[in-house]
Structure formats: structure tokens, C-alpha cells
Write a structure and sequence with these properties.
Oligomer: single chain
Radius of gyration: 16 Å
CATH topology: Rossmann fold
Number of domains: 1
Helix content: 25-40%
Number of strands: 7
Structural class: alpha/beta
Order of helices and strands: EHEHEHEHEHEEH
């Protein structure tokens, strides 16, 4: 188990596939005094991910690893994680499913943010599914990653009211604002319990 010694911040890697708004938010939070983590590595499977330019702007090491072969991709990722002494992985819009073997290597040290109130609406199109089912609330969840999709132990959740004229797009923007508040809070909570 990891031990928080003195004031040393824990080394974290963030995996992304897209815009990186959660990444940017985590970086900004990591620079605060009360943060228990520092982001030392950003990994993306997508060469066009806008989040890569965010990592570069903050001078954070970043690697683009193509997923043409999952075994070799994960081998490369594990090499980078070990080389950079990464203690915890944050999945922030990473659109690839990690293998059981990979998860075993980082058991209990991978967390994900998901745009629904899990266990409802695992997978994709969460906002549309919540609206179509006439749910009163949607939201977001930070959870541990296990070998089943979006099924790991829940760390924190935030509810977002679904409004009468909501579209998936409008709802997703409001949920994203809450994700930005929830993710760093959940990460600090995880690191406090280590």
C-alpha cells in the first residue's frame, strides 16, 4: 500500500482520448497547496486528442500509444508508468477498455469518471438514456476500475437535475461542470485513504 509521507505529493498519470477538459481541471487543482497529487504523465490513444496540447502547455510528459494491438499497447503503457514511478491512474475520457491483466498490475490504483449515476447507464450515451427514461436526475460518478465495465466501487457521486427541455448536449455541459468539481475531490479522498 502507498503511504503518504510528509508533504510529498503522489505521482499520478491521466489517460485521455479527447478534449482533456477533466485533465486541465486536474492539472489546475494539482498546483494548489491542498492537493495531494502531481500529474507526471499523460497517455492518449488518440494522436488528435486536444488534451495532448494541454499536457505540453503545462510541460507534462505525454505519450501517444496506438491501440492497433492491445497487448503491445498495454505493455508500452506499463513501461511508461513504471519508468515515471506512477502510483495512481486517472481515466478522464479514455475511450479504450483496459484488459484484466493490465488492471491486475494496478489493482485498486485506477479510478475513472463516468457521466451517469452508476450503477445506472454504464457505457455510452448516458445523458440521452437518462432523458429517454424520464429520469429526474443524471450526474457523474468517480469509481475504482475493475475488470467489469463501469462496475467498480463508487468513490463519490454528484446528482444533476434533468430539466424539462433538456437535450443530451445541454445536460452533458451541466454534468461536465460537476465532473470538474468531483474528480479532484475524489482523487484527494482516495489518496487520503491510502
Amino acid at each position: 500500500m502507498l503511504k503518504l509521507t510528509g508533504y510529498k505529493k503522489i505521482d499520478v498519470a491521466v489517460f485521455i482520448s479527447g478534449n482533456g477538459s477533466n485533465l486541465k481541471n486536474l492539472i489546475n487543482y494539482s498546483l494548489k497547496k491542498r492537493s495531494k497529487f502531481v500529474i507526471n504523465l499523460v497517455i492518449s490513444n488518440n494522436i488528435k486528442a486536444k488534451g495532448i496540447s494541454i499536457a505540453k502547455k503545462f510541460k507534462i510528459k505525454n505519450k501517444i500509444i496506438k491501440y492497433s494491438n492491445i497487448k503491445s499497447a498495454e505493455k508500452k503503457i506499463l513501461f511508461e508508468l513504471r519508468k515515471n514511478n506512477i502510483n495512481l491512474i486517472c481515466l478522464a475520457g479514455f475511450m479504450k477498455i483496459l484488459s484484466k491483466n493490465f488492471i491486475k498490475n494496478f489493482d485498486g490504483k485506477i479510478i475513472n469518471i463516468h457521466p451517469s449515476l452508476l450503477p445506472r447507464y454504464k457505457g455510452l450515451n448516458t445523458h440521452q438514456r437518462a432523458i429517454s427514461n424520464n429520469d429526474k436526475f443524471s450526474g457523474c460518478t468517480v469509481h475504482y476500475v475493475n475488470s467489469k465495465l463501469d462496475s467498480g466501487k463508487i468513490i463519490l457521486q454528484k446528482r444533476v437535475k434533468i430539466l424539462k427541455n433538456d437535450t443530451a448536449n445541454k445536460l452533458s455541459k451541466r454534468v461536465l461542470k460537476q465532473e470538474h468539481l468531483l474528480f479532484p475531490k475524489a482523487l484527494n479522498k482516495v489518496l487520503t485513504s491510502l
